[in-house]
Amino acid sequence: MEPTDGELYDQLVGYLAAEGAVDEDRVQGLVVLTEFDHRPLPVPLRLHITARSFGDHLRAAAPEAAVVWPDVQPVEAAWRLFLVHLEEAVRTAKPGETELLLDRTGVVARSADA
Question: How would DSSP label each residue in 84-111?
Answer without folding.
Answer: HHHHHHHHHPPTT--EEEEETTEEEEE-
